[in-house]
Amino acid sequence: MERTFKTFLVTGGAGFIGSNFIRYMLSAYPECKVINFDALTYAGNLENLKEVEADPNYRFVKGDICDRVLVDSLLSGGHEVFKSLHPQSSALSPVIDCIVHFAAESHVDRSITGPEAFLKTNVMGTFNLLESAKKHWLSESSSLSPQSSLFLHVSTDEVYGSLGDEGHFTEDTPFAPNSPYSASKAGSDHLARAYHHTYGLPVVTTNCSNNYGPYQFPEKLVPLVILNALEGKPLPVYGDGLNVRDWLYVDDHCSAIDMAIRQGRLGETYNVGGWNEWKNIDIVRLICQILDETIPDSPNRPHESLITFVKDRPGHDQRYAIDASKIKEELGWTPAHTFETGIRETIKWYLENSDWCETVRSGEYRDYYKHQYGS
Ligand code: NAD
Ligand code: TYD
To answer: Is residue 39 a part of any domain in this protein?
Structure first.
């Protein structure tokens, strides 16, 4: 039977996937309330949610998932946000019955130069949320139960480590994380699992492959290449460019999470991927070709001439590839977007949203870029 929830707490909702997920949910389920709980780190940006900021079913709360007092006040329904969220009727659900946990430090390169923030947010922050959910959902006085609440933990395929030329990650692949980012996400996955098995917390985990699409912070490969190419800057490809990633359009990740929320079996993990493997160098070339076609009078044509091979990432995982059969067979999920259409829509979005790009690439971004790429 399908689960339904009334009030979602989306952590990290001002980031790339979280903001796409909030738009997705508000449009798919006009009866649900969404509280976006985000610390607004360098990666979080309320510009990502301009379209929905006036929606009566949406509220933003600025805060850190490591702040236990704040998390407790939200989960107890005692926070100010509830007064404005349910102004007319006390009959509406006063409590958060579903947490969708995106908040994380998410960039592998940053985890190599500064791992501590990853441990704090990804491990301790997740622990904090799990503890608070346990306290508020499982206590005898709670109006909720494991049947009427859910903790959806959003994770990554990177916890499984690196593949050789053959094979795919399944849900049974042993964890072998290789970067501080993936190690911290693996730690959070283990905690989420343990809270289900030990305490009976209703947890479902998703492990997804690389996402691309609108609102992705331009430190990640796809938006970085699009924006650098538009500006005639070098397109940095790490090492030999032969590392392989499995790319999924962000909306398809959102629909997978939605299905896992409604139908995922408690305590289970679901791999989510696009059956869409690309070598880094090929994806960079494809973006260049689409830009050549889209902007025939660009002074930077052919954009491929901007490709520059740079020093490899330390411990760079060679290949990720997801076997997404379980979510397909159990929940009926398949991606709706082909890579051909998704990547074109993404490039179009970045071309049409230069103001957003300008805003997010201010201050801290410039310092990071200079440190990472040297110019
Ligand atoms: P992102 O970096 O774009 O967004 C992360 C968000 O979390 C930001 O809004 C940031 O402000 C917020 N945040 C960070 N620390 C916080 C804290 N301590 N308290 C509250 N908020 C905090 O990340 P993303 O790419 O949208 O990824 C979201 C989630 O999906 C992550 O858990 C990531 O591991 C997972 N994931 C990402 C991908 C991908 O390709 N991007 C793939 C699979 C899984
Ligand atoms: P990224 O978008 O950082 O995602 P992840 O490391 O989580 O997979 O990188 C995707 C791939 O692109 C990865 O193999 C590293 C590579 N890459 C480059 O070659 N150059 C770059 O400037 C960046 C940011 C990434």
So the answer is: yes
